[in-house]
Amino acid sequence: MNKITVTDLVDFIRKTSRGRQTLINNLKTPKEKTPDDGGGNYWISALSCLAKAFVDNSQNIIGGKIDELIDKIEYAKTKKAKDMYQGNINILQDFEEYDFTAIKPNAKLVFIKKNKAKSIVDIKNLPLYAMPHHVFSFEENEIQKIGAVWFVAKKGGFKIEELAMVTDLLFRYLDINYTNKYEIDMNYCVAVDVNSLNHISYTPISTTAIKSPLMQTVNEMKVLM
């Protein structure tokens, strides 16, 4: 079975019964294309730029990327390419004054190299694909903690419960890969919807203040397998 991306999960929730079965059938059909990390190549310019800006908390990086994409629009030969570049520019412009310190701890961060071999979160034998942009460790009250941020994009953005599902998957990814050495800081296990600038940490999910439909979605997928 193909790896199930966050885009697949959200699409499944939104589809009709017939559409859901078609999606499941497609997931069961082998394909060579590598799953995206929460937005696909269409949004790669914006997502990769925001990942860099998160590390440096620098708007200069964003401004420079916007200028680069404006130049690419000028030389793009197709409307599809022009629209793609403009869509990425629109996202980055919204982040030009974004305070990245709001989604990361006030501590010295050690960014941990991610292992793609550990990107699968197995839930009820479904291979859910999680590849956050950054996993980082930090010390707080002499406790070694772990956090992560995942920038995700989808045309029209994510509903709150859909974004919560991404955060839920991110938490499970950290839990299976890092809790032998670190304590997960729920406040800094964060998914960011770059289309709306909404972000959700795992804290409100853990208290059920925000409900994640992840397990319900997995269960409904299993029925159609």
Residue fraction in strands: 15-25%
Q: Roughly how many Å is the radius of gyration?
A: 18 Å
Low-pLDDT stretches: none
User: Percentage of helical residues?
Assistant: 40-55%
First and last CA, distance:
10 Å
Structural class: alpha+beta
Identify the overall geometry: globular
Total number of helices: 8
Strand order, main sheet: write it out. 1-4-5-6-7
Name some characteristics of this structure.
alpha+beta, single chain, 5-stranded mixed sheet, two-stranded antiparallel sheet, 225 residues, 44% helix, 8 helices
List the helices and strands and how they pair.
Layout: H1 6-14, H2 17-27, H3 44-56, H4 59-75, H5 79-94, E1 110-112, E2 120-123, E3 126-129, E4 134-140, E5 143-152, H6 160-178, E6 183-193, E7 199-201, H7 203-206, H8 214-224
Parallel strand pairs: 5-6
Antiparallel strand pairs: 1-4, 2-3, 4-5, 6-7
Helix pairs in contact: 1-2, 3-4, 3-5, 4-5
